[in-house]
Structure formats: C-alpha cells, structure tokens
From TrEMBL, chain A:
Gene3D superfamilies tied to this protein: HUPs, TPP-binding domain
GO molecular function (one): electron transfer activity
InterPro entries, per the entry: DHS-like_NAD/FAD-binding_dom, ETF_a/b_N, ETF_a/FixB, ETF_alpha_N, ETF_asu_C, Rossmann-like_a/b/a_fold
Superkingdom per UniProt: Bacteria
Cofactor section: FAD
Cofactor: binding comment: Binds 1 FAD per dimer.
Biological processes annotated in GO: fatty acid beta-oxidation using acyl-CoA dehydrogenase
Keywords: FAD, Flavoprotein
SUPFAM superfamilies linked: Adenine nucleotide alpha hydrolases-like, DHS-like NAD/FAD-binding domain
Limits of the Electron transfer flavoprotein alpha/beta-subunit N-terminal domain: 2-181
Name of the featured protein: Electron transfer flavoprotein subunit alpha
TM spans (from-to): none
Similarity section: Belongs to the ETF alpha-subunit/FixB family.
From TrEMBL, chain B:
Protein name: Electron transfer flavoprotein subunit beta
SMART domains in the record: ETF (SM00893)
SUPFAM superfamilies: Adenine nucleotide alpha hydrolases-like
Record PANTHER family: ELECTRON TRANSFER FLAVOPROTEIN BETA-SUBUNIT, ELECTRON TRANSFER FLAVOPROTEIN SUBUNIT BETA
Limits of the Electron transfer flavoprotein alpha/beta-subunit N-terminal domain: 21-210
Keywords on record: Electron transport, Transport
Length: 315, 253
C-alpha cells in the first residue's frame, strides 16, 4: 500500500494532505492510497480524510496530542511495517522533513525529499526536486520501499471520491518524547495564506519601516486583493511575522503575479518566488538583481510609485 | 564531552551553476564552507567559551579532495581537529548518516551540530538521520542554544512559530540563521590551523552503499518579459503598469 501521513491543524485536514493524495496517485505505485491520521480527538479529520483516500487508519491517542519527531517517526514506521507499505509519503513541512529521515533510517529505506513530481520507472520511484536554491531541477530515483516528502503547493489537491474510504482504528506502541517543550509562540499572518494567494505583494527593506509596510504593502494588497509577503531582512528587523517570509528559509510561492516592493532580489529570496508566473518589481536601483527576473519593472521610489498605484487601481 | 560539527562544502550563493551530463558541474565554481555549518562550528566554540566542559571539537566532512579547504576553515575558526572521509561519490543523507553515527561513537561524541539546510541539496536530512541511527533526540532549526551540565535548552522554529525546548545529551542539533554570528578566522589562526590534525579516513571502512541515483538535472529558467518602466512620472508609470497587468499579463481584473 501507499501510506500517507495526514497533516492537519486545528481539527481540519490540511491542503497539503490533499496534495499528497494526488502525489500518491501520480506515483505509478500500486495498492490502496492509505491516509494515516495521528492525533487526539481527530474523528472529524478522519472523516475528511476518508473522502479522498481508499482507506484511513486512525490513531486517536493522548500520546499524540502534540507533535514530536520521535513519536511521529515511530508511529509511521510501525504502520508502514504492519501494512507492508512500499511508499511512505510525508508532508514537506518543517515537522515532516524533521521526522521523515528517521522513518527512512528505521526502515533502512531510501529517502527522496521535497518532491515536486513523482513517477515510476519500472520498479524505481522517480522524484523531481529543486536544488541549488531552486535554480536546478533534478530527477532522482530509488528502488524498493521508499520514503518521500512532498513540497507543499506542487500537486493539485485531490477531489473527494464518489464513495469514501473505510476507516480503521490502529494500535501503536509509542516511545516517550525526550524533548520537552517549555514554551510556544505562534506566529500567524492575519491575511490570506501566502501559499494559496493568486497575487502576492511583498515588501523588502526598501519599504523603509513597519508603518510604511502597512501603508504601501498592505495598502496595495488590499486595493488589488492580494496576499502579503516579506523578505528575511524585513522579518529580521521585526517589521513582519515569520509566517510571511518568502525564500529559502521561508515559504515557497508560485502565484500568478508576485509584486516585489523594495526587494533587492537576493538568491535566497529568489529561490522562494522565482517560479511565479509574473514577477513585477519596483525598486529605485535600476541595477537591483530583482529586475533580471522581472516581467515588469518600475525604476522609482516606493514613496511615490506605490501611492499612485493604489490610487490608480481603485479607479 | 566531545562535540562533532558536520561540515559541507557548497558553491558560493552567487556562483554560476552549470550542468554537464546528468548532474551539476561545479568545476570552476567558488566553493565555500556552508553558512549553516559555520553556525554549527561557531556554536561549538561558544559552548566551550561559555564554560561547558568541552574537551574536543571535531569537524567531519565526507566529500572530494577539495573539501579539505572547508575543513581548514573550520580548523582556523577554532575546532581542534578534523576528519575527512575522502570520496568523489555523492551519497544520500540516509547513507551518510552511517559515517556520522560511526564517527560519533568512535570519538565519544555527545553533541552533534549539523547545518539546518544546505544551499545545494537542501535535504535537511542528515542531522535527523544521524540522530535516528544513534537513537538520540534531535532539535532542528535552532536559533538559540544553552548547555548546562548535560541539559540543552534553547529555542527553535516549528511549523507555525517557535518553541522553547529542553533536552538531555546526547543529542543532534541543527542550526539556522540567527543562532550566532560566525567569527572570521584570523591570520594567526589560519597559520595554526595548518598544523592541526586533518585525518583522512578511507570510505571503504564505512561500507557505504548509496540508495538514491541521479537521473537528470536541468537548469530551467522562465523567459521573462523584462519590460522596464521609468518611474520619473509616478502617475504615468502606475497607469502603464496597471494596464500591462490587466491587458497583457491578465493577472488582475
Ligand atoms: C542561509 C540564508 C537564508 C536566507 N533566507 C532568506 C529567505 O528565506 N528570504 C529572504 O528574503 N532572504 C533570505 N536571506 C537573506 C537574503 O540574502 C537577503 O539578505 C534578503 O533577501 C534581503 O532582503 P531585502 O531585499 O528586503 O533587502 P535589501 O537587500 O537591503 O534590499 C532593499 C532594496 O530596496 C531598494 N530600495 C531602498 N529604498 C527604496 C525606495 N525608497 N524605493 C524603492 N526601492 C528602494 C534598494 O535599492 C534595495 O534593492 C537568507 C540569507 C541566508 C544567508
Ligand atoms: N558530505 C557531508 N559531509 C559532512 N557533513 C555533511 C555532508 N552532507 C551534509 N552534511 C551536513 O548535514 C547538513 C544538512 O545537509 P543535508 O541533509 O544534505 O541538507 C549540512 O549542513 C552539513 O552539516
């Protein structure tokens, strides 16, 4: 079987889970597409999962109330072994990519990370992924039982099937977590999820200040109905939450239009947005690297151009 | 205690990338120690300087001959000695973790510092894979770390924000930007580094059998329109951009 560890937050199945179901169906590997739901009080999630999968395995346990890498790795491995899964698909989130290698080592299986496409070549599973700061697209393959993580936003979300899959409860023998969590802070952007926005307005250091970010970046985003992104420089300066960061160490986005205001276009930033369908840049420095990847560029001062844009787009 | 810091060599972020055959060809590219690994080296040095009973800091790299340069950088920053498993073969993280685990055991290591994410492969996997092989816990994406006795505390990024944590050694910690500001090797330290031990290990001793094959690599660049608009007249520039976005690119209504 193909085993997918479902991702869910706040009692809802995550979009990434629907994407993993598509990845499983496109992988060319045989057997039922099985979603494993790990957590506590996850009955609603399991029902949502059943709508898209051939079968759902549910581990509804108090020990699974909070994510822990070792616990998740143990759970996924046990189910993979008992169900003789030959393909184990895990989300390309931070947590997914943290425990997936542990599952691969436990199963002594090859690990293909951050796949953007999956397919089979005979018995081998092939995966495409970006490397070298997303400048290179590489294809790799491995045989036998394979552990894969899937890059969020790379596959179309699966639609519900005509008949929902069966649900089964499973038993697990779990280790005690060894890392104690002593505090948490959740950083949320108040706006449209970046990875889902069709148009994104991103502000860089050139925007000047927190106040200007609100005025120009949020102002333009509101005027044209867009999501809001930020560069690392802006996040490091504390102007915006990390949830809005785009780039190598932030989110990867691929909107129809990406509008960069006062962004220089460092390679680490480009690796997160370089695949956008249209890139629009406004920067006062005609030599800024962002212009090299831009479809449309305005050389000018944000303080003058953006108010004019907001004004004109309202007309 | 002994600390193992993993070191990998990557092309400079600005380096031009070319492909020959099925893979990326780094011939002629400027290669440097990965920035993420500099954080690891720096953190090991800081733990020692902050009074932790660190006996030895050992840097480990698996890779071709040139990787020596990255290890020399680590030595010049202040690690005590280095181990180089010299091979031209490129291994996946699950396979490489065998080397890390064996070296950690042979050298009585109780803390491993690895890079969070490479600028080349970006697999974020070796730290976790090594932790699993050793049966140790791991802390990824760490941007704050303290060691008191054998208790590690700190802060790291998680899916939707960050967490403070506490864990007991032995453990694997992976780094990220913000953890520290790596020092530059000074000239006297660069000179001293030349005399430090850089041990060469035969890869055959680790019985490595790669699990992942490269099939193909391509540089895909999207052709961009590169239409430039002069911003001297902001109103006209804004008008023109909006028209292009509406009528040519058709991305806004
Ligand atoms: C390991 C690593 C990971 C990283 N990950 C990320 C990441 O995930 N995301 C990310 O974004 N960065 C990342 N970075 C940082 C990256 O290298 C850059 O430092 C960062 O992207 C720069 O942000 P910026 O463009 O906002 O700022 P700057 O580079 O300072 O650029 C500001 C731009 O604004 C322009 N400007 C200034 N004033 C005005 C004005 N009034 N009107 C118009 N234009 C103006 C300037 O000409 C300049 O081009 C990473 C770096 C490292 C080493
Ligand atoms: N060949 C290697 N030799 C030594 N350390 C490595 C090697 N490959 C990866 N690492 C370490 O593992 C980290 C993560 O690498 P990766 O799992 O490839 O993203 C790097 O930052 C290094 O610290």
């Amino acid at each position: 079987m193909i085993l997918i560890v479902a991702e869910h937050t706040a009692g809802k199945l995550a979009k990434s889970t629907l994407e993993m179901v598509t990845a499983a169906r496109e992988s060319g590997r045989e057997g039922p597409v099985t979603l494993l739901v790990l957590g506590q009080n996850v009955a609603a999630v399991a029902t949502e999962a059943a709508a898209v999968a051939d079968q759902v395995l549910v581990a509804d346990l108090p020990q699974l109330a909070a994510y822990n890498a070792e616990v998740w790795a143990a759970a996924a491995t046990q189910i993979a072994q008992e169900g003789e899964a030959h393909t184990i698909i895990i989300g390309g989130s931070r947590s997914g990519r943290e425990y997936a290698p542990r599952v691969a080592v436990k199963l002594d299986a090859p690990y293909l990370e951050d796949a953007i496409a999956l397919g089979s070549n005979g018995a081998a599973l092939q995966a495409q992924r970006y490397t070298y700061l997303a400048r290179v697209t590489e294809t790799v393959e491995a045989d036998g039982t394979v552990v894969v993580t899937v890059k969020p936003g790379s596959f179309a979300p699966a639609a519900p099937a005509a008949t929902p899959g069966e649900q089964y409860d499973v038993e697990l023998d779990l280790p005690a977590p060894r890392v104690q969590v002593t505090g948490r802070s959740v950083e949320k952007s108040s706006r449209v999820a970046l990875t889902e926005a069709e148009v994104i307005v991103t502000g860089g250091r050139g925007v000047g200040s927190t106040e200007n970010f609100t005025r120009y970046v949020e102002g333009l985003a509101d005027a044209i109905g867009a999501g809001v992104g930020a560069t690392r420089a802006v996040v490091d300066a504390g102007w915006r939450p990390y949830a809005e960061q785009v780039g190598q160490t932030g989110k990867t986005v691929q909107p129809k239009a990406y509008i960069a205001l006062g962004v220089s276009g460092a390679v680490q930033h480009l690796s997160g947005m370089g695949k956008s369908k249209n890139i629009i840049a406004i920067n006062k420095d005609a030599e800024a690297p962002i212009f090299k990847v831009a479809d449309y560029g305005i050389v000018g001062d944000i303080n003058e151009i953006v108010p004019a844009l907001i004004e004109a787009s309202r007309k | 205690m002994n600390i193992l810091t993993l070191v990998r060599q990557v092309p400079d972020a600005e380096a031009r990338i070319k492909i020959s055959g099925q893979t990326v060809d780094l011939e002629g590219a400027t290669l440097v120690i990965d920035g993420m690994d500099e954080y690891g080296v720096e953190e090991a040095l800081r733990l020692r300087e902050s009074g932790a009973p660190v006996e030895q800091i050992i840097a480990l790299a698996v890779g071709p001959k040139k990787v020596e340069d990255a290890l020399r950088t680590a030595l010049a920053m202040g690690v005590d000695r280095a181990i180089h498993v010299e091979t031209d073969e490129k291994y996946d993280a699950v396979t490489l973790s065998r080397v890390v685990a064996q070296v950690a055991q042979a050298e009585n290591v109780t803390l491993i510092l690895a890079g969070g994410q490479e600028t080349d492969w970006d697999s974020q996997a070796l730290g976790a894979a090594s932790a699993e092989r050793l049966g140790w816990p791991q802390l990824t994406w760490t941007n704050e770390l303290k060691l008191d006795g054998d208790t590690l505390t700190g802060r790291h990024d998680v899916d939707d924000g960050n967490e403070s944590f506490s864990a007991t050694l032995p453990a694997v910690v992976t780094t990220q930007q913000g953890l520290n500001e790596p020092r530059y090797p000074t000239l006297p330290n660069i000179m001293k580094a030349k005399k430090k031990e850089l041990r060469k290990d035969d890869p055959a001793a680790y019985q490595l059998q790669g699990k992942v094959r490269s099939v193909n690599a391509e540089i895909q660049t999207r052709a961009r329109r590169n239409t430039m608009i002069d911003g001297k007249d902001p109103q006209a520039a804004a008008q023109q951009l909006l028209e292009l976005l509406r009528n040519e690119a058709k991305v806004i209504a």
